[in-house]
Amino acid sequence: MSNIHPACKPVSGEFHLLNVQVKEHVAKSFTAFLTCNIKVPYMKAVQLEGPSRSGKKEAIKDGMELGRKFLAEGEAGARSVALKLKKTKWSPQQLANVDEKDLYTNHPLPGFRDNQELFAKEEELLPPGEGWTRHSPTMLVQPHSQVYFVQSGDKAGKYYRRGTRGEWVDIDPPNAPQEYDITVRAASASCVRKGVKFDRAVMLNDVTKIARLALKLPLSFVDRPASAFALFQGLRTPEAAQWCAENFHKKLLPRLAEKIHVYKTEELQEVLEATLKEMDEEVMKSAFPFSGCSALVALLLGNRFLVAGVGDCRVLLLEGEGKAAASSRLLDCEGRLDELEEQLRFWQEGGMVVDGLLRHQHPDLLDEAKRILCAPNVFDVLLTREDELDVKQVRTAYKKLALRVHPDKKNDTVDKKAYQYAFARLEESKEKLEEMIAEDLESCREIRRVLHAEVHTRSGAAALLNVDWTPASDSILEEIEKEAAKAAKELKKKFAKLQAFSKDFSQAEAICDEAVRTMARPCTVESLPRVEALLKEGVQMSRALGLRDLRSPRPVVKMEPQVASCVISTGAAIRVALLCGATSAVEDAKLVQRGAAHTRRPKASALGWVGLPEASSAAVCISIRPSKVESSGVKRQKTGADTVRMRHILLRHHQVKQADPMLRRDPGRSVQEAEELALKTLESLIQTPTAFPKLCRELSDCQTGEQPGQLCGDLGWVARGQTEAVLDEAIFSLAVNEFGDLIASSRGFHIIQRLA
């Protein structure tokens, strides 16, 4: 054990002891170790350990960084550096000035300095984590979580929160985040439908970094790895899916920042569910409320994996390697149109399936009994929209319909129970209408007009409320909403007398309110026809995000997220499949078989699933594995080597815009064509590795494809940091002779193989 830096610092007659050491282990590895005892009203001890290093100089360099950061920023700063050092690789140039003979001089580490101000601050105590701000001379506060920390005095080191009456409530210290030895990689794949991609995927591999950089939020108290993923499948158009993909992190991360203590699994499930509901609320108010999408959101914190979803989606766990992999369903969302219970529900709410799609019911497509049973209000049971509303017309219509639907007049070939229910409703509606007309005929006519209004179109809502329907600029939307709300209030008064007589009264009120929301929705003259044309389109699920016309005032479609969770074993290798649309209906066994060759290749797995004949939508594959274990179960060699030899096949596509000095040709492929070709080529190489030179010469768009013989595609020895980050990570994670996943870089798609 080598002592790098002992330092004693007198403050007010006391001594602070700081030690930075290097420990040599039996396995010829070295670790920097910082210890510090600070004299405060009680003794505070700090211990920090750097990563395991193969060289002693690297460990000494780690210790220098730990010591400098501690003297500059205290414990919190040193802990931050300790985490970063695990991913830091020192270059030979950085280690050139590290010399063991300097360990015994008075000031062995350049940059170390006496920092009395720091130790004065340490006497006041500094809480762990980021985001603390000054609340008072003796207290700090975390603004997002509203947790307070006392720095000095009798209650130094205590944490508090304000109670409901403003009193101080003593609470537990924040969560000490645990870092699990897990590596997470994820990739997505999707298909083109109607000439566009309806699906959007989001992969946030490090939510703590994204929260800090994009939203200025501290997330330093969550377990790691901390990752989030989402998959949104557009239904009628991709607009809702696009909006959700762009705003997913803005809804999820602030919720995670609200708490710095340990999250229970149930609380994290509620966070995901609330995130989906908030996105839904904003889509419903947006300029594209009829778009809609299925949604899957997932969160990995430490060894806990949680998902929430709504619509046509499923989550599958694949455990094990190759053909021996086992599958289990973590989440299978409700709402498919072939489910009997769901059919009964949306029938009651006025929905029906036509050509495999869920729509509003159309009376012309129903027999007499079903038309009566599914009539949305008491008027439509007996009368057509053209019929006059009076007692005589009601009684005449009753006599005609009673003859048609009386169960005693039906033979055994029909469903008599349906006719019994229809006849009972017919009688009840006749009595109710006669009672309402006797109470106030004009109120009846007004409520009937409201119940028949088409309030999801701007012209229909304006006609109901008798206001100007012309689409307006955002600057005067507030005035329009006020005018519409005032008109709706006056309209409700016209049929208020029927509240005690009609079951349809609350529905009529809801229709008036929906008309107000339609008038308040941002819209332009140009976009109005396209947006309202969506009202004619059916959807393939009875659960979804958005789809305002199918959810209000009658909930034919529901927005009810489902949640699930599991604990990931740190010794197991698994893949999680997030599936939407047709891909979610593929049999589990087919998904397992299709991805058997790609247990460590999430991009190839996702492309394989989406490429199945019966699949025509999106998938996300998340690979979660122990950091130091190969697919074969052999420990990965961490030799500290900074160079590897590799070769590749490059497949360029039309989205690559920048000039490429190594470009051999530009075949003008689409992204989807490049992905399909890359997957096919990779799978051929896995089966026949010796075919690499031949395939590279035929397919690669890089000039290296013209090199002779076995050198075809050879990039030579590549140093760490020499290539793009995404390629760097892939290359240095491979074993010798192993083929990597399909990698998308600024040049196109790469099929890579490590040679040495």
Automatic annotation (TrEMBL):
Q: Which residues form the PpiC domain?
A: 641-756
The J domain sits at 377-438
Which molecular function terms from Gene Ontology are attached?
peptidyl-prolyl cis-trans isomerase activity
* UniProt keyword annotations, A-Z: Coiled coil, Isomerase, Rotamase
**Taking every annotated instance into account, which residue ranges of this chain make up the domain PPM-type phosphatase?**
186-449
Pfam families, alphabetically?
Answer: PP2C, Rotamase_3
Give a yes or no for keyword Nucleotide-binding in this entry. no
**Can you name a GO cellular component term?**
cytosol
The name this protein carries in UniProt is peptidylprolyl isomerase
What is the organism field in this record?
A: Effrenium voratum
